[in-house]
Amino acid sequence: MSVRKILKIGDPLLRKTSELVNPDELGTKEFKKLIRDMFDTMRHADGVGLAAPQIGILKKIVVVGSEPDDEAPASSKVPERILLNPEITPITESVDGNWEGCLSVPGMRGYVERPNKIRMKWMDEKGDAHDEVIEGYQAVVYQHECDHLNGVLYVDRLKSTKMFGFNDSMEFSGPILD
């Protein structure tokens, strides 16, 4: 298990745009190790997703995956996936509001509204192309993680700064995204 340091808000790398993953990189020892390390780091931090910039790698790589806890609905499960060079297009004007948290903004949450139905195109670790319509909680998770690839954090998308604060100081109502 190789857990990497997660960069925190204020680190300038989190505000940079990531580079595309070249298909020639797939299958290399370095790439495979990076993917393993990203999953190890995400799980160690109890996250639902992790983008490569969060560990200082400016590449368009996202890993996601979670199992709902006993009190959470099955709809909060996010299948384990590796997303390379993802492109997101909202396909509805309807939004879902969630109390989002982030491994790079530890101990805090903010209320963010995002489209609840998106079309996402990406490449997997084998180089296979995917094109899928994604809805609900998964759509929110993917948008949150893919924002990192463009130097955007959820705090940039807050509905109101009055709906942002430390976890232990706030009362939450509605869905919570980790």
Automatic annotation (TrEMBL):
GO terms for biological process: translation. Binds 1 Fe(2+) ion. It catalyses: N-terminal N-formyl-L-methionyl-[peptide] + H2O = N-terminal L-methionyl-[peptide] + formate. Gene3D superfamilies: Peptide deformylase. It holds the Pfam family Pep_deformylase. One of its GO terms (molecular function) is metal ion binding. Its cofactor is Fe(2+). The active site is at E145. Fe cation binds at C102, H144, H148. The keyword GTP-binding does not apply. Its EC number is 3.5.1.88. Removes the formyl group from the N-terminal Met of newly synthesized proteins. Requires at least a dipeptide for an efficient rate of reaction. N-terminal L-methionine is a prerequisite for activity but the enzyme has broad specificity at other positions. PANTHER family: PEPTIDE DEFORMYLASE, PEPTIDE DEFORMYLASE 1. This is Peptide deformylase.
